[in-house]
Design goal:
The complex is a heterodimer. Chain A is mostly beta strands. Chain A is 0% helix and 57% strand. Classes of the chains: A mainly beta, B mainly beta.
Chain lengths: 115, 113
Protein backbone atom coordinates (compact mmCIF):
# COMPACT_ATOMS: atom_id res chain seq x y z
CA UNK A 1 0.00 0.00 0.00
CA UNK A 2 1.67 3.19 -1.22
CA UNK A 3 -0.49 5.47 0.92
CA UNK A 4 -2.49 7.14 -1.81
CA UNK A 5 -6.09 8.26 -1.46
CA UNK A 6 -8.56 9.96 -3.74
CA UNK A 7 -11.61 12.05 -2.90
CA UNK A 8 -14.41 11.96 -3.58
CA UNK A 9 -14.74 8.33 -4.65
CA UNK A 10 -17.98 8.98 -6.50
CA UNK A 11 -19.48 12.18 -7.84
CA UNK A 12 -22.47 13.07 -9.98
CA UNK A 13 -22.61 16.58 -11.34
CA UNK A 14 -24.31 18.60 -14.05
CA UNK A 15 -22.90 19.92 -17.30
CA UNK A 16 -21.24 23.30 -16.89
CA UNK A 17 -20.40 23.00 -13.20
CA UNK A 18 -16.83 23.08 -11.89
CA UNK A 19 -15.46 19.93 -10.31
CA UNK A 20 -12.28 19.34 -8.31
CA UNK A 21 -10.84 15.93 -7.56
CA UNK A 22 -8.17 15.46 -4.93
CA UNK A 23 -5.27 13.05 -4.73
CA UNK A 24 -3.37 12.74 -1.47
CA UNK A 25 -0.20 10.78 -0.80
CA UNK A 26 1.58 10.11 2.47
CA UNK A 27 4.97 8.83 1.31
CA UNK A 28 6.73 11.82 -0.29
CA UNK A 29 6.78 10.60 -3.90
CA UNK A 30 8.07 13.24 -6.28
CA UNK A 31 5.82 12.48 -9.26
CA UNK A 32 2.04 12.52 -9.33
CA UNK A 33 -0.24 11.74 -12.26
CA UNK A 34 -3.88 12.00 -13.24
CA UNK A 35 -5.33 9.46 -15.68
CA UNK A 36 -8.77 8.79 -17.00
CA UNK A 37 -10.01 5.32 -17.86
CA UNK A 38 -12.71 4.75 -20.44
CA UNK A 39 -13.98 1.50 -21.96
CA UNK A 40 -11.88 0.46 -24.92
CA UNK A 41 -9.23 3.13 -24.30
CA UNK A 42 -7.22 1.90 -21.37
CA UNK A 43 -5.75 4.64 -19.21
CA UNK A 44 -4.79 7.98 -20.72
CA UNK A 45 -2.63 10.60 -19.05
CA UNK A 46 -4.30 13.96 -18.37
CA UNK A 47 -1.61 15.89 -16.46
CA UNK A 48 1.34 15.10 -14.28
CA UNK A 49 3.50 16.86 -11.73
CA UNK A 50 7.22 16.50 -11.15
CA UNK A 51 7.37 18.69 -8.07
CA UNK A 52 5.55 21.38 -6.12
CA UNK A 53 4.14 23.88 -8.62
CA UNK A 54 5.72 21.93 -11.52
CA UNK A 55 3.18 20.37 -13.84
CA UNK A 56 2.90 19.36 -17.47
CA UNK A 57 0.25 18.21 -19.90
CA UNK A 58 -0.49 14.68 -20.93
CA UNK A 59 -2.24 13.12 -23.90
CA UNK A 60 -5.77 14.33 -23.06
CA UNK A 61 -5.33 17.59 -21.14
CA UNK A 62 -7.97 19.74 -22.88
CA UNK A 63 -10.68 20.84 -20.45
CA UNK A 64 -8.60 20.01 -17.36
CA UNK A 65 -6.27 21.95 -15.11
CA UNK A 66 -4.14 20.83 -12.17
CA UNK A 67 -2.40 22.31 -9.19
CA UNK A 68 0.17 21.08 -6.72
CA UNK A 69 0.86 23.48 -3.88
CA UNK A 70 2.15 20.79 -1.51
CA UNK A 71 4.11 17.61 -2.10
CA UNK A 72 1.28 15.45 -0.83
CA UNK A 73 -1.67 16.91 -2.76
CA UNK A 74 -2.43 16.99 -6.49
CA UNK A 75 -5.74 18.52 -7.56
CA UNK A 76 -7.52 17.96 -10.86
CA UNK A 77 -10.10 20.59 -11.86
CA UNK A 78 -12.72 20.45 -14.55
CA UNK A 79 -13.52 24.12 -15.04
CA UNK A 80 -16.85 23.43 -16.75
CA UNK A 81 -17.73 19.76 -16.79
CA UNK A 82 -19.04 18.16 -19.99
CA UNK A 83 -20.65 14.77 -20.57
CA UNK A 84 -17.52 13.61 -22.41
CA UNK A 85 -15.66 13.92 -19.11
CA UNK A 86 -17.75 11.18 -17.54
CA UNK A 87 -15.09 8.64 -16.66
CA UNK A 88 -13.14 6.95 -13.91
CA UNK A 89 -10.20 9.08 -12.80
CA UNK A 90 -7.08 7.56 -11.30
CA UNK A 91 -4.25 9.24 -9.51
CA UNK A 92 -0.81 7.63 -9.50
CA UNK A 93 2.48 8.38 -7.79
CA UNK A 94 6.09 7.44 -8.36
CA UNK A 95 9.60 8.58 -7.62
CA UNK A 96 10.16 7.79 -3.98
CA UNK A 97 13.64 8.85 -2.96
CA UNK A 98 16.03 5.95 -3.45
CA UNK A 99 13.52 3.95 -5.48
CA UNK A 100 13.27 5.88 -8.70
CA UNK A 101 10.41 6.75 -11.01
CA UNK A 102 9.79 3.43 -12.73
CA UNK A 103 7.02 1.89 -10.68
CA UNK A 104 3.74 3.76 -10.45
CA UNK A 105 1.32 3.18 -7.60
CA UNK A 106 -2.33 3.85 -8.21
CA UNK A 107 -5.12 5.20 -6.08
CA UNK A 108 -8.58 3.57 -5.87
CA UNK A 109 -10.15 5.87 -8.47
CA UNK A 110 -12.97 8.41 -8.62
CA UNK A 111 -16.06 7.65 -10.66
CA UNK A 112 -17.36 10.91 -12.13
CA UNK A 113 -20.70 11.17 -13.92
CA UNK A 114 -21.59 14.39 -15.73
CA UNK A 115 -25.31 14.62 -16.57
CA UNK B 1 2.64 8.07 -31.58
CA UNK B 2 2.98 5.01 -29.37
CA UNK B 3 0.04 2.61 -29.61
CA UNK B 4 -0.38 -0.34 -27.25
CA UNK B 5 -2.68 -3.22 -28.14
CA UNK B 6 -3.78 -6.18 -26.06
CA UNK B 7 -5.37 -9.22 -27.64
CA UNK B 8 -7.68 -10.86 -26.75
CA UNK B 9 -9.92 -8.37 -24.99
CA UNK B 10 -11.37 -11.18 -22.88
CA UNK B 11 -10.31 -14.72 -22.06
CA UNK B 12 -12.00 -17.49 -20.10
CA UNK B 13 -10.10 -20.60 -18.99
CA UNK B 14 -10.66 -23.50 -16.59
CA UNK B 15 -8.76 -23.54 -13.33
CA UNK B 16 -5.29 -25.05 -13.52
CA UNK B 17 -4.61 -24.08 -17.11
CA UNK B 18 -1.44 -22.25 -18.12
CA UNK B 19 -2.16 -19.16 -20.19
CA UNK B 20 -0.49 -16.36 -22.10
CA UNK B 21 -1.63 -12.77 -22.42
CA UNK B 22 -0.28 -10.67 -25.27
CA UNK B 23 0.76 -7.04 -25.54
CA UNK B 24 2.11 -5.29 -28.62
CA UNK B 25 3.43 -1.76 -29.06
CA UNK B 26 4.28 0.23 -32.17
CA UNK B 27 7.43 2.10 -31.14
CA UNK B 28 10.37 0.13 -29.77
CA UNK B 29 11.96 3.24 -28.20
CA UNK B 30 10.88 2.47 -24.65
CA UNK B 31 12.47 2.61 -21.22
CA UNK B 32 10.45 -0.23 -19.83
CA UNK B 33 7.21 -2.17 -19.97
CA UNK B 34 4.99 -2.86 -17.01
CA UNK B 35 2.18 -5.34 -16.40
CA UNK B 36 -0.65 -4.40 -14.05
CA UNK B 37 -3.62 -6.16 -12.57
CA UNK B 38 -6.95 -4.40 -12.02
CA UNK B 39 -9.81 -5.88 -10.03
CA UNK B 40 -13.34 -4.58 -10.65
CA UNK B 41 -13.86 -1.15 -9.14
CA UNK B 42 -10.25 -0.94 -7.96
CA UNK B 43 -7.05 0.78 -8.94
CA UNK B 44 -4.11 -0.85 -10.70
CA UNK B 45 -1.58 -3.05 -8.97
CA UNK B 46 1.87 -3.43 -10.49
CA UNK B 47 2.81 -7.05 -11.20
CA UNK B 48 6.06 -6.97 -13.14
CA UNK B 49 8.32 -4.34 -14.67
CA UNK B 50 10.78 -5.19 -17.43
CA UNK B 51 13.52 -2.73 -18.29
CA UNK B 52 14.30 -2.28 -21.99
CA UNK B 53 17.62 -4.10 -21.54
CA UNK B 54 15.93 -7.16 -20.00
CA UNK B 55 14.25 -10.11 -21.68
CA UNK B 56 12.03 -11.33 -18.88
CA UNK B 57 10.96 -10.99 -15.27
CA UNK B 58 9.41 -13.56 -12.97
CA UNK B 59 7.33 -13.33 -9.84
CA UNK B 60 5.83 -16.51 -8.45
CA UNK B 61 3.51 -18.01 -11.07
CA UNK B 62 3.92 -15.01 -13.35
CA UNK B 63 6.53 -14.60 -16.06
CA UNK B 64 6.70 -11.61 -18.37
CA UNK B 65 8.86 -11.48 -21.47
CA UNK B 66 9.87 -8.56 -23.65
CA UNK B 67 10.96 -8.57 -27.30
CA UNK B 68 11.57 -4.91 -27.89
CA UNK B 69 12.65 -5.25 -31.51
CA UNK B 70 9.36 -6.87 -32.49
CA UNK B 71 7.27 -4.69 -30.17
CA UNK B 72 5.85 -7.57 -28.15
CA UNK B 73 5.47 -8.69 -24.58
CA UNK B 74 3.75 -11.69 -23.08
CA UNK B 75 2.52 -12.39 -19.58
CA UNK B 76 2.54 -16.09 -18.76
CA UNK B 77 0.40 -17.28 -15.85
CA UNK B 78 1.07 -20.82 -14.67
CA UNK B 79 -1.52 -23.05 -13.04
CA UNK B 80 -4.26 -20.43 -13.12
CA UNK B 81 -6.59 -20.02 -10.14
CA UNK B 82 -10.01 -18.35 -9.75
CA UNK B 83 -8.27 -15.62 -7.76
CA UNK B 84 -6.36 -14.67 -10.89
CA UNK B 85 -9.61 -13.42 -12.44
CA UNK B 86 -9.07 -9.73 -13.18
CA UNK B 87 -8.19 -7.37 -15.99
CA UNK B 88 -4.53 -7.34 -16.95
CA UNK B 89 -3.04 -4.23 -18.51
CA UNK B 90 0.34 -3.59 -20.04
CA UNK B 91 1.94 -0.17 -20.29
CA UNK B 92 5.09 1.14 -21.93
CA UNK B 93 7.20 4.12 -20.90
CA UNK B 94 8.36 5.88 -24.08
CA UNK B 95 11.83 7.36 -24.33
CA UNK B 96 10.34 10.43 -26.04
CA UNK B 97 8.43 11.36 -22.86
CA UNK B 98 9.13 9.05 -19.98
CA UNK B 99 6.34 10.51 -17.86
CA UNK B 100 3.64 9.68 -20.41
CA UNK B 101 3.10 5.95 -19.98
CA UNK B 102 0.92 4.42 -22.69
CA UNK B 103 -1.52 1.73 -21.68
CA UNK B 104 -3.27 -1.03 -23.53
CA UNK B 105 -7.02 -1.46 -23.03
CA UNK B 106 -6.46 -4.68 -21.10
CA UNK B 107 -7.41 -8.34 -21.24
CA UNK B 108 -10.22 -9.41 -18.93
CA UNK B 109 -9.37 -12.86 -17.59
CA UNK B 110 -11.89 -15.22 -16.03
CA UNK B 111 -10.65 -18.43 -14.43
CA UNK B 112 -13.49 -20.87 -13.85
CA UNK B 113 -13.39 -23.23 -10.84
Amino acid sequence: DAGITQSPRHKVTETGTPVTLRCHQTENHRYMYWYRQDPGHGLRLIHYSYGVKDTDKGEVSDGYSVSRSKTEDFLLTLESATSSQTSVYFCAISGLAGVGTDTQYFGPGTRLTVL
Amino acid sequence: KQEVTQIPAALSVPEGENLVLNCSFTDSAIYNLQWFRQDPGKGLTSLLLIQSSQREQTSGRLNASLDKSSGRSTLYIAASQPGDSATYLCAVRPISNNNDMRFGAGTRLTVKP
